[in-house]
Request: fold
Amino acid sequence: MGNVIDLIEAAKGSGRKMLAVLIDPDFGTDEALLERTVQNACMAKADLIFVGGSLLTSTAFNRCVELVKQWSDRPVVLFPGSPAQLSHHADAVLFLSLISGRNPELLIGHHVTAAPTIRAMGIEAIPTGYMLVDGGKPTTVSYVSQTVPIPHDKPGIAAATAIAGELLGLRTVYMDTGSGAEQAVSPEMIEAVRKSVDLPIIIGGGIREVATARSLCEAGADVLVVGTAFEKDPEHIFAMSEAVHA
Ligand code: 1GP
Reply:
């Protein structure tokens, strides 16, 4: 398996959209449901499996990643809410800098804490500009990060932030309205960012309907991340994967 960022850039280059299935590590306590979700992700040819969450209440993080890796033939990518969410079982980690916020711990502090561990584990780190966008209600990530999301109707702020990320040398931008958000990032905001940077664009938060997924892909998203909708119904992965790849 090659580097995950190379897979994402190659897909972007050929216009192929990607689906990432997000596994909440707390959700991993129900192993049968976790296994079904991972199996469905593989059978539906989802492209990536993300594991992580902004607030971890279970102690079984490493075990969850180990199981996901064991059951999956897809690359397993950590989407860590803290430096505690690292595991050598993963293929890569999104090395997230919360560039929409002004919390120094989430811009560089946690990175310093995590860097030696990531190096020692030998997993690929993907420098990612993480941008929190208002999705209609406060979410766990907005509360835990203590940052103000970019207003939903301000594509210009998102574009300027993404350009700054690109100029800083980040390899991808991830715009997220947070898990369980009422609204996904708007197509207008994605279009503004698409016109402004050449980086792969990852979009997550509040994506439930196939029609929403289609409109976000058409607006310029390269990778869609879906968690909550698949926790509620792991069979929904098939229709979503078909829509993203169509
Ligand atoms: C959250 O982008 C993810 O960080 C996924 O959100 O759980 O709403 O799909 P959902």
The pocket of SN-glycerol-1-phosphate is lined by residues 22, 176, 178-181, 204-207, 225-229 (CB under 6 Å). The radius of gyration is 16 Å. The first strand starts at residue 18 and ends at 23.
